[in-house]
Amino acid sequence: MIRLSNVHKSFDSQQVLNDLSLEIPTGQITAIIGPSGEGKSVLLKHMIGLMKPDSGRIEVDGESILNIRRSQLNRIREKFGMLFQNAALLDSMSVFENVAFPLREKTRLSSDEIEQRVRSALEHVGLKNVNGKYPDELSGGMKKRVGLARALLLNPKIILFDEPTTGLDPIIKRAIHQLIKDTHAQFGFTAVIVSHEIPEIFDIAQNVAMLFRGKILQIGTSDEIRGSTDPTAKQFITGSLDGPIQLV
Amino acid sequence: MSAAIQFIGHSVLDCVRSLGRMGGFLLYSCYMIVRRPGSPLYILKQIRFIGSKSLFVICLTAAFTGMVLGLQGYYTLAKFGSEGMLGTAVALSLVRELGPVLAALMVTGRAGSAITAEIGIMRISEQIDALETMALDPFKYLITPKIIAAMLALPLLCAIFDVVGIYGGWLVGVKLLGVNPGAYFYEMEQSVVWRDVYSGFVKSFSFGVIIAWIGCYKGYFAGHGAEGVSRATTESVVLTSVLILVWDYFLTSVLL
């Protein structure tokens, strides 16, 4: 379980997370929704220790990830996989090398075993004949799928998805959503998905948390949030221009 | 008035904070060099990038530096009837001072800026974050191989600079201006001692550390977007060049 308690984070004078508390249940898919610029990606980066809060507590499986040695943090990070918004593939490496990289660095598998696992991971995300290509030769959807293959490869207990389908066409979008559902059903990891994909996200996630003005405005099951009567949540879900969420 | 004092106070605090962060970055890099220096393959790749690929610009700069030294030295020494000392003048200038400094400045322009840009782009495109989320220390893959490679490559480049520069001076002094070739090399051999060569190597070794350290540091903490990387690259080249010259003065005063 990931637990954030009373987390505050500001950038200069802008308060991004304001006394935020949230619990991510183990083995389930939790979606974090909310207007753009509300700090959803910042929240995700706090969960894996890429950003540190100004105050508050963050725990993963009961262990604090704050004020600990880098080696301890790395041990906790081994539980995680992360798919970044722009996939964050290492651009000096080919697709094959990108996916093989964590295996080479963190396991003692032979070259043949690594090759076999990378090929099967890429096939699993629907990619063939791209092994020798470099990230800048791939489309956005292909990059995300390579990123997903890399994130899944070491069978992490927790996977963080930062807008996995933003900017993709509807077919690729559906394919990636299906892939997340299928791999979750297969491996049973804990997933946290930051997404704007309304209403699709309600079919994928078991829990949905809405972030607004630096706090979790509402959290509940997909059906609870879908049927929310809160004016802010309702406005966001329906995409209405009228309501508490102002464009400017 | 109070606003001005506040501004000065903030600037001083920012400066001290940056210096602390730079120092911490170097210390952690040294710790990682000792503990986990990274794969030899990464180090070799960086030696190729920082060293081999700088050879052309180093040779070109060295040749013309030696030639200018030959020309200037000849006309200065001729006033005292000491043209025979030209080899000594060229060699000592190059080995002790110009070789390490100019080689370092050339590498700063060619490789130091590229190191900052490369790491800066990795920072803004979240590639460094991706390494961290895989529980892989970015220092092991990105920083220490570059520092080790620069420490090894700079003394070698400096040696090449010295040799090419000496032959540049020989070309002008001996072939164009008629200095006795025997005197050129004999006087050089008599006056250049191990201590001179040693001081040049100590300088170029430490310049290698400075180039990689500042280049990596500026890239690692690059600001947002293309503008942030471009600013970091400029700052990296300027700061490295200034530090090389300042450090050169201190080292010279210690090693003399």
Please provide a written account of the structure:
Chain A has 248 residues and is an alpha/beta fold. Chain A folds into two domains: 153 residues, 3-Layer(aba) Sandwich (Rossmann fold), CATH 3.40.50.300; 67 residues, no CATH class. In chain A, helix 3 runs parallel beside helix 5. The two termini of chain A are 36 Å apart. Helices cover 87% and strands 0% of the residues of chain B. Chain B contains nine helices and no strands. Classes of the chains: A alpha/beta (248), B mainly alpha (256). At the A-B interface, helix 2, strand 6 and helix 3 of A face helix 5 of B.
Alpha carbon gap, first and last residue of chain A: 36 Å
Estimate the helix proportion of chain A, in percent.
25-40%
The class by helix and strand makeup of chain B works out as mainly alpha
CATH level-four homologous superfamily name of the largest domain in chain A: P-loop containing nucleotide triphosphate hydrolases
Distance between the termini of chain B: 47 Å
Task: Outline the low-pLDDT stretches of chain A.
Answer: none
What is the assembly state of the chains in this entry? Answer: heterodimer
String of helices and strands of chain A? EEEHEEHEHHHEHEHEEHH
Q: Which parts of chain B are unreliable, with pLDDT below 50 for 5 consecutive residues or more?
A: none
Question: How much strand of chain B?
Answer: under 5%
Structural class of chain A: alpha/beta
What pair of chains forms the biggest interface?
Answer: A-B, 25 and 14 residues
Strand composition percent of chain A? 15-25%
Q: Give the count of helical stretches of chain B.
A: 9
CATH class of the largest domain in chain A: Alpha Beta
Tell me, rounded to a whole number, the average pLDDT of chain B: 93
Number of strands of chain A: 10
Q: Give the overall shape of chain A, derived from the CA principal axes.
A: globular
Largest beta sheet of chain B, briefly?
none
Strand order of the largest sheet of chain A: 6-7-8-3-9-10
Number of domains of chain A: 2
